[in-house]
Amino acid sequence: MSGAIVLESLDLAALLCSRVCHDLISPVGAITNGLEVMEEDSDEETKTFAMELIKKSARTASAKLQFCRLAFGAAGSAGAQIDTGEAEKVARGMIEDEKTKIEWTVPRALLPKNRVKLLLNMLLIAAQAVPRGGSLTVESVGEGENAGFRVRSTGQIVRVPQAAPGLLVGQTAEGHAVDAHAIQPFYTGLLAKECGLAVSLTREGDTAVIAAT
Asked: Which pTM was predicted?
Protein backbone atom coordinates (compact mmCIF):
# COMPACT_ATOMS: atom_id res chain seq x y z
CA MET A 1 0.00 0.00 0.00
CA SER A 2 1.13 3.56 -0.67
CA GLY A 3 -0.10 6.99 0.29
CA ALA A 4 0.13 10.53 -1.03
CA ILE A 5 2.92 12.59 0.52
CA VAL A 6 1.79 15.76 2.25
CA LEU A 7 4.49 18.12 3.52
CA GLU A 8 4.26 21.54 5.07
CA SER A 9 6.43 24.14 3.34
CA LEU A 10 8.65 24.47 6.42
CA ASP A 11 9.22 20.71 6.52
CA LEU A 12 10.10 20.67 2.82
CA ALA A 13 12.59 23.51 3.32
CA ALA A 14 14.14 21.82 6.37
CA LEU A 15 14.54 18.47 4.60
CA LEU A 16 16.12 20.08 1.53
CA CYS A 17 18.55 21.96 3.79
CA SER A 18 19.42 18.68 5.50
CA ARG A 19 20.10 17.09 2.11
CA VAL A 20 22.44 19.92 1.08
CA CYS A 21 24.28 19.78 4.41
CA HIS A 22 24.67 16.01 4.04
CA ASP A 23 26.35 16.51 0.65
CA LEU A 24 28.78 19.10 2.06
CA ILE A 25 29.75 17.42 5.33
CA SER A 26 32.29 15.06 3.75
CA PRO A 27 34.46 17.55 1.80
CA VAL A 28 34.30 20.20 4.53
CA GLY A 29 35.24 17.61 7.14
CA ALA A 30 38.20 16.51 4.99
CA ILE A 31 39.41 20.12 4.82
CA THR A 32 39.26 20.37 8.60
CA ASN A 33 41.16 17.10 9.01
CA GLY A 34 43.84 18.25 6.57
CA LEU A 35 44.35 21.50 8.45
CA GLU A 36 44.67 19.64 11.75
CA VAL A 37 47.30 17.34 10.27
CA MET A 38 49.32 20.32 9.00
CA GLU A 39 49.21 21.92 12.46
CA GLU A 40 50.20 18.79 14.37
CA ASP A 41 52.65 16.98 12.07
CA SER A 42 56.06 18.39 11.16
CA ASP A 43 56.83 15.76 8.50
CA GLU A 44 57.02 17.49 5.10
CA GLU A 45 55.68 14.49 3.18
CA THR A 46 52.65 14.34 5.46
CA LYS A 47 52.09 18.08 5.13
CA THR A 48 52.23 17.79 1.34
CA PHE A 49 49.67 15.00 1.41
CA ALA A 50 47.44 17.06 3.72
CA MET A 51 47.65 20.08 1.42
CA GLU A 52 46.63 17.97 -1.59
CA LEU A 53 43.69 16.64 0.42
CA ILE A 54 42.65 20.18 1.34
CA LYS A 55 42.85 21.38 -2.28
CA LYS A 56 40.89 18.42 -3.61
CA SER A 57 38.22 18.71 -0.90
CA ALA A 58 37.89 22.46 -1.43
CA ARG A 59 37.30 21.90 -5.16
CA THR A 60 34.69 19.26 -4.35
CA ALA A 61 32.91 21.49 -1.85
CA SER A 62 32.90 24.38 -4.32
CA ALA A 63 31.48 22.20 -7.12
CA LYS A 64 28.72 20.89 -4.84
CA LEU A 65 27.81 24.39 -3.66
CA GLN A 66 27.59 25.70 -7.23
CA PHE A 67 25.40 22.75 -8.20
CA CYS A 68 23.11 23.09 -5.19
CA ARG A 69 22.73 26.83 -5.77
CA LEU A 70 21.10 26.09 -9.13
CA ALA A 71 19.39 22.78 -8.31
CA PHE A 72 17.84 23.80 -4.99
CA GLY A 73 18.29 27.57 -4.63
CA ALA A 74 16.12 30.49 -5.71
CA ALA A 75 18.44 31.29 -8.66
CA GLY A 76 17.01 34.76 -9.19
CA SER A 77 13.59 36.34 -8.94
CA ALA A 78 10.27 34.87 -10.01
CA GLY A 79 10.19 34.28 -13.73
CA ALA A 80 13.98 34.19 -13.97
CA GLN A 81 15.71 32.12 -16.64
CA ILE A 82 18.88 30.03 -16.42
CA ASP A 83 21.38 29.29 -19.16
CA THR A 84 21.52 25.54 -19.87
CA GLY A 85 25.22 26.03 -20.57
CA GLU A 86 25.67 27.02 -16.92
CA ALA A 87 23.62 23.99 -15.89
CA GLU A 88 25.91 21.74 -17.93
CA LYS A 89 28.99 23.31 -16.31
CA VAL A 90 27.82 22.76 -12.73
CA ALA A 91 26.55 19.26 -13.56
CA ARG A 92 29.95 18.23 -14.92
CA GLY A 93 31.70 19.76 -11.90
CA MET A 94 29.45 17.91 -9.46
CA ILE A 95 29.05 14.52 -11.14
CA GLU A 96 31.87 13.83 -13.59
CA ASP A 97 34.98 12.03 -12.40
CA GLU A 98 37.25 9.22 -13.56
CA LYS A 99 34.33 6.75 -13.36
CA THR A 100 31.29 8.75 -14.44
CA LYS A 101 30.96 10.74 -17.68
CA ILE A 102 28.17 12.93 -19.04
CA GLU A 103 27.12 13.08 -22.68
CA TRP A 104 25.20 16.36 -22.86
CA THR A 105 23.08 16.98 -25.98
CA VAL A 106 20.69 19.62 -24.61
CA PRO A 107 20.95 22.75 -26.81
CA ARG A 108 22.27 25.87 -25.11
CA ALA A 109 19.38 28.21 -24.33
CA LEU A 110 17.79 30.32 -21.63
CA LEU A 111 15.02 28.29 -20.00
CA PRO A 112 12.67 29.00 -17.07
CA LYS A 113 14.54 28.38 -13.84
CA ASN A 114 12.28 25.59 -12.58
CA ARG A 115 12.78 23.66 -15.83
CA VAL A 116 16.57 23.83 -15.42
CA LYS A 117 16.31 22.94 -11.73
CA LEU A 118 14.25 19.92 -12.79
CA LEU A 119 16.94 18.81 -15.22
CA LEU A 120 19.69 19.07 -12.59
CA ASN A 121 17.64 17.10 -10.07
CA MET A 122 16.96 14.44 -12.71
CA LEU A 123 20.73 14.19 -13.22
CA LEU A 124 21.26 13.54 -9.51
CA ILE A 125 18.84 10.64 -9.61
CA ALA A 126 20.42 9.33 -12.81
CA ALA A 127 23.89 9.42 -11.24
CA GLN A 128 22.67 7.51 -8.19
CA ALA A 129 21.42 4.76 -10.51
CA VAL A 130 25.04 3.89 -11.44
CA PRO A 131 26.78 3.71 -8.03
CA ARG A 132 30.04 2.37 -9.52
CA GLY A 133 30.12 4.87 -12.33
CA GLY A 134 29.04 4.82 -15.94
CA SER A 135 27.64 7.11 -18.60
CA LEU A 136 24.81 9.63 -18.33
CA THR A 137 23.24 10.71 -21.61
CA VAL A 138 21.26 13.94 -21.29
CA GLU A 139 18.82 14.95 -24.04
CA SER A 140 15.89 17.26 -24.70
CA VAL A 141 12.41 16.01 -25.52
CA GLY A 142 10.80 18.67 -27.67
CA GLU A 143 12.00 22.21 -28.28
CA GLY A 144 12.01 25.64 -26.69
CA GLU A 145 10.71 26.63 -23.27
CA ASN A 146 8.25 23.74 -23.21
CA ALA A 147 10.86 21.05 -23.80
CA GLY A 148 11.12 18.08 -21.49
CA PHE A 149 14.20 16.00 -20.74
CA ARG A 150 15.44 12.43 -20.68
CA VAL A 151 18.55 11.09 -18.92
CA ARG A 152 19.81 7.56 -19.57
CA SER A 153 22.19 5.88 -17.09
CA THR A 154 24.34 2.96 -18.18
CA GLY A 155 27.04 1.20 -16.21
CA GLN A 156 28.33 -2.09 -14.85
CA ILE A 157 25.75 -1.90 -12.08
CA VAL A 158 22.41 -0.17 -12.62
CA ARG A 159 20.04 0.28 -9.70
CA VAL A 160 16.61 1.86 -9.50
CA PRO A 161 15.76 2.33 -5.81
CA GLN A 162 12.42 0.70 -5.10
CA ALA A 163 10.92 3.83 -3.53
CA ALA A 164 12.18 6.34 -6.11
CA PRO A 165 9.49 5.96 -8.84
CA GLY A 166 6.76 6.45 -6.24
CA LEU A 167 8.48 9.43 -4.64
CA LEU A 168 8.69 11.12 -8.04
CA VAL A 169 4.90 11.09 -8.28
CA GLY A 170 4.35 12.02 -4.63
CA GLN A 171 3.72 8.53 -3.23
CA THR A 172 5.47 6.62 -0.49
CA ALA A 173 4.98 3.24 1.15
CA GLU A 174 2.42 3.38 3.91
CA GLY A 175 4.01 3.95 7.28
CA HIS A 176 7.23 5.38 5.79
CA ALA A 177 8.03 9.05 6.41
CA VAL A 178 9.87 11.23 3.91
CA ASP A 179 13.37 11.87 5.25
CA ALA A 180 16.39 13.82 4.00
CA HIS A 181 17.36 10.91 1.75
CA ALA A 182 13.93 10.65 0.11
CA ILE A 183 13.25 14.37 -0.22
CA GLN A 184 15.30 14.89 -3.39
CA PRO A 185 13.28 12.60 -5.71
CA PHE A 186 10.07 13.95 -4.14
CA TYR A 187 11.27 17.51 -4.83
CA THR A 188 12.08 16.49 -8.41
CA GLY A 189 8.47 15.43 -8.83
CA LEU A 190 7.28 18.77 -7.47
CA LEU A 191 9.43 20.61 -10.00
CA ALA A 192 8.08 18.45 -12.84
CA LYS A 193 4.50 19.17 -11.77
CA GLU A 194 5.26 22.89 -11.60
CA CYS A 195 6.57 22.69 -15.18
CA GLY A 196 3.49 20.82 -16.38
CA LEU A 197 5.48 17.63 -17.01
CA ALA A 198 5.08 14.02 -15.91
CA VAL A 199 8.28 12.44 -14.57
CA SER A 200 9.08 8.74 -14.44
CA LEU A 201 11.98 6.44 -13.58
CA THR A 202 12.20 3.04 -15.23
CA ARG A 203 14.72 0.35 -16.03
CA GLU A 204 15.19 -0.78 -19.62
CA GLY A 205 17.59 -3.74 -19.63
CA ASP A 206 20.97 -2.46 -18.46
CA THR A 207 19.84 1.17 -18.59
CA ALA A 208 17.93 3.35 -16.13
CA VAL A 209 15.85 6.08 -17.74
CA ILE A 210 14.44 9.12 -15.98
CA ALA A 211 12.19 11.20 -18.21
CA ALA A 212 10.07 14.32 -17.81
CA THR A 213 7.67 14.82 -20.72
From this structure: 0.90
